[in-house]
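Reviewer 2 asked us to include a model.

Predict the structure of this chain.
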Amino acid sequence: MNIHEHQAKEVLKSFGAPVARGVAITSLDQAQAAIDALPGPLWVVKSQIHAGGRGKGKFIEKEAGEKGGVRLGFSKEQALEHVKAMFGRHLVTAQTGPGGKQVNRIYVEDGADIEKELYLSMLVDRETGRVAFVVSTEGGMDIEAVAHDTPEKILTISIDPATGVTAADADKLSDALKLDGAAKVDMSTLAPILYKAFTSKDMSMLEVNPLIVMKDGHLRVLDAKVSFDDNALAIKGRHDDIMALRDTSEEDEKEIAAKEWDLAYIPLDGTIGCMVNGAGLAMATMDIIKLYGEEPANFCDVGGGAGKEKVAAAFKIIMQDPNVKGILVNIFGGIMRCDIIAEGVLAAVRETNLAVPLVVRLEGTNAEMGKKIIRESGLNVIPANDLDDAAQKIVAAIKGK
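Predicted model (structure tokens):
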């Protein structure tokens, strides 16, 4: 689950992290009071959507102007103009897709005197099984671009869960970020604060970009993006405070439906819907679709032990995407039996009156039984022998070949 920047900052602030004063608004009639609550002389007006790259984003509506989703107001009047220009408009960033996301919240924040911008994030390092800090001196930039162009400028520091962040760890972070003086002292307290917030709230990702050194030498969290582990949130009573922050207006209806069935659904921008079981198989399926010249419209991971009803639900969720021109089902049966998959797929085909091509590749437990069920169904389902064959068939089918 993702939350907005202003919510992430409140969470971090509750642990003692240094953040600027700010006020979030959800309607235009709250704007003037939010601006008046801050001293100035600089007001930072930030669109609040669940997507990165807001500052470089563009609004679809001309009335919003040419500037991005993060703007500076050098007077109360200018700050109010920015709020009015952005509120209710659709902001397009590299992470939203061409339709953008409607700005229904705006965060007005106190300005900062920035000396230097840094990058800091935290995640679970799957190789070490530990929480790791990922840092770079190239703050304020897309970390993907930094990783591609200058990977040597990104450093990873894993934390021993038995000790938490030690003084030695904080020194490593300071050295990696080239901090000294007050900023280095601040890091010795900030790193343990962020680690405690990450672990105690079951975060899956925490990104501070940028983490700034101000002209007075101190550190401040200037932006914050936080995601939480859905499995931890599903435990009743574990994180009710975090669940209260959920903004369902930012979530795709199909994603909400998928969560109700304990499915992992990811919307994309292509034309081929993908039903798979397992993240690795999902990546391979999407890669081979791209190899043959098409793009995935979405993928729905049904997991390792889905029943007929769950498979049928996944199929119908995929079909809710109007961009889907064809569907590829790619299942490797382990715990999950291929005959169950076949029955669920056919049930969904009958129920939805499927009008787009469907290719099914089954392998593993009861694969031959599943293939037989499909062959004898009398429905317009295209069987495939392997993944390569399946990808070629679905691409050919949506092209009318």
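The radius of gyration is 24 Å. The first helix runs from residue 5 to 14. We have added this to the supplementary material.
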